[in-house]
């Protein structure tokens, strides 16, 4: 029976997977047009699976496809360009031994075997190019190189790409590969950046011949639903595949690993295929250790500017213009942590957002407000429900004890949301999660959605800007209550008016109640 897969490439006959026809067809068109290009996406974004399906499609069209990777290659292979060229030939010849080159002619097969059986473990550039030229006279050859990041620390790999580029530029006179496709997280410009970080060398790409591969590789609701329908039929289950697919998409924005991992958790843990089951799976994935989150941790540690931008978006509500030429935004986009949302830099998905809040809050564990939240956590759980009114009341008390009116106003305005979320985190840790609604996040207000034991609580956090602004916030919160089918909402107002009445009170609007905490 098929299963959900989150390690290595997905195989349609073994794994439940969303069809990726459109992105594969986009890649096929580029190959047919003789383009060289890169498939650059974040970790576990389906790049290897896409290459595998691309290989299958191209072979059906008669291409001889060499699919190789330099991952795991001995360091000695990178001693010189000549060593690396030979290593690439060795990788190509291995495919002959495995009998996975159905379209390679007999003459090209012999040429490749002869080259791989040389006495020396190196080959000169002119001999390498001559070999590829002779093979290309009779065969339409495509070279796929996966996991290019594995070679990114070696200058010789950049030179190797330079050889392929030179062959490409001369291909009108001298036959060569029909197409070369690279797959990895780092684009070639940033490989160069890693090798030579000085500003003057950042944009000297050895791969400036590459065409753009802009295909959407995220998974969408209808595709997820189709996958779940297959799973449902195989297991003889009865659930609304479309509504579950929409929930999964809402939390993942179609990030392939996250989609598959949520489904895998629900299946393996025996959770129900409904809202409660999805929320439990989300909670699980945020607590587990996996390679995707490990990689994000490394990136945030390695690039302080990236961490600063993400915190400005999450905690301060800053609208940061999406600018590809901003180094930190470019890196965040390359890692698939952010994307361009109507010209602004936005976090990729809810799961990433919650994980980032949790990550940044780990640095606040020694703060007084975090310690207070940890000490108070058992006071707010009654019969499996989160008592938000009591939570807000206690938060108000702690806040007014710690922060002094007038002196801390500037700090509070910049960090009010961070203070509340720092207090909230240890209270719901391990059981619940939260995320901020991106459409309402700005410098003065944001809406926090708390998921706790299958229930949701809406909390608006805002900086007081007068009665009329406050009324607009109340109306927005009312709209959310209607959307989520809730009767009670919550509001935390950071007010700098000296005559403010701090504390918690209820606002009744029709059949809805807003519990407001003024601090």
Q: CATH homologous superfamily of the largest domain? A: P-loop containing nucleotide triphosphate hydrolases
Q: Please summarize the sheet with the most strands.
A: 6 strands, mixed
Number of domains: 4
Tell me the strand order in the biggest sheet.
Answer: 11-12-13-14-16-15
Terminal Cα span? 57 Å
CATH topology of the largest domain: Rossmann fold
- Overall spatial form: elongated
Structural summary, described in words:
The protein has 519 residues and is of the alpha/beta class. The protein has four domains: 19-201, P-loop containing nucleotide triphosphate hydrolases (Rossmann fold, 3-Layer(aba) Sandwich), CATH 3.40.50; 221-285; 291-348, no CATH class; 365-518, no CATH class. It has 19 helices and 16 strands. The protein has helices at 21-32, 47-60, 81-97, 106-116, 125-138, 155-169, 188-195, 221-235, 241-252, 256-269, 275-287, 291-302, 304-316, 327-334, 350-361, 368-376, 388-402, 409-428, 467-484, and strands at 3-4, 15-16, 37-40, 64-69, 141-146, 179-184, 338-341, 344-347, 381-382, 385-386, 432-436, 445-452, 455-463, 488-494, 503-509, 512-518. The strands form five sheets. It has a six-stranded mixed beta sheet with strand order 11-12-13-14-16-15, with helices on both faces. It has a four-stranded parallel beta sheet with strand order 3-6-5-4, with helices on both faces. It is elongated, with a radius of gyration of 27 Å. It starts with a strand and ends with a strand. Mean pLDDT is 89; it is low at 195-203.
């Amino acid at each position: 029976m098929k299963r959900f897969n989150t390690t290595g490439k997905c195989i349609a006959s073994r794994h439940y997977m969303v069809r990726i026809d459109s992105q594969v067809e986009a890649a096929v068109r580029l190959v047919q047009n003789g383009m060289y290009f890169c498939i650059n996406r974040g970790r576990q974004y389906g790049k290897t699976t896409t290459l595998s399906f691309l290989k299958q499609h191209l072979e059906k069209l008669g291409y001889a496809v060499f699919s190789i990777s330099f991952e795991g290659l001995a360091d000695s292979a990178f001693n010189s360009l000549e060593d690396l060229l030979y290593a690439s030939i060795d990788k190509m010849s291995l495919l002959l031994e495995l009998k996975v080159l159905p379209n390679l002619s007999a003459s090209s097969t012999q040429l490749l075997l002869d080259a791989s059986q040389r006495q020396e473990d190196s080959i000169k550039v002119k001999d390498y190019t001559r070999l590829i030229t002779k093979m290309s006279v009779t065969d339409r050859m495509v070279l796929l190189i996966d996991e290019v990041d594995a070679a990114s620390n070696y200058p010789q790999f950049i030179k190797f790409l330079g050889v392929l580029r030179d062959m490409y530029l001369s291909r009108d006179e001298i036959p060569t590969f029909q197409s070369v496709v690279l797959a990895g997280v780092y684009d070639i410009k940033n490989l160069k950046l890693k090798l030579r970080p000085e500003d003057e060398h950042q944009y000297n790409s050895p791969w400036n011949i590459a065409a753009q591969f802009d295909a959407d590789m995220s998974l969408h609701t209808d595709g997820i639903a189709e996958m779940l329908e297959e799973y449902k039929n195989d297991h003889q289950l009865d659930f609304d595949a479309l509504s579950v697919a929409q929930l999964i998409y809402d939390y993942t924005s179609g990030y392939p690993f996250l989609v598959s991992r949520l489904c895998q958790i629900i299946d393996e843990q025996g959770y129900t295929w409904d809202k409660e089951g999805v929320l439990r799976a989300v909670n699980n994935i945020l607590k587990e250790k996996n390679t995707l989150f490990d990689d994000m941790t490394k990136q945030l540690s390695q690039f302080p500017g990236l961490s600063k931008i993400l915190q400005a978006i999450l905690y301060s509500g800053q609208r940061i213009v999406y600018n590809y030429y901003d180094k930190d935004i470019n890196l965040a986009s390359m890692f698939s942590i952010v994307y361009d949302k109507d010209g602004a830099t936005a976090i990729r998905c809810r799961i990433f957002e919650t994980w980032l809040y949790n990550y940044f809050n780990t640095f606040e564990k020694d703060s007084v407000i975090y310690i207070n939240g940890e000490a108070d956590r058992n006071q707010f759980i009654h019969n499996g429900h989160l008592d938000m009114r009591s939570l807000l009341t206690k938060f108000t008390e702690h806040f007014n004890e710690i922060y002094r009116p007038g002196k801390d106003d500037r700090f509070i305005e910049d960090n009010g949301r961070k203070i509340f979320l720092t207090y909230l985190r240890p209270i719901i840790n391990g059981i619940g999660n939260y995320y901020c609604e991106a459409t309402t996040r700005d410098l003065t207000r944001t809406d926090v959605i708390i998921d706790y034991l299958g229930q949701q609580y809406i909390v608006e956090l805002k900086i007081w800007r007068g009665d009329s602004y406050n009324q607009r916030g109340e109306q927005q919160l009312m709209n959310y209550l209607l959307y989520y089918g809730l009767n009670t909402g919550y509001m935390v107002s950071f007010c700098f008016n000296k005559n403010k009445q701090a504390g918690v009170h209820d606002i009744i609007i029709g059949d809805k109640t807003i519990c407001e905490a003024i601090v």
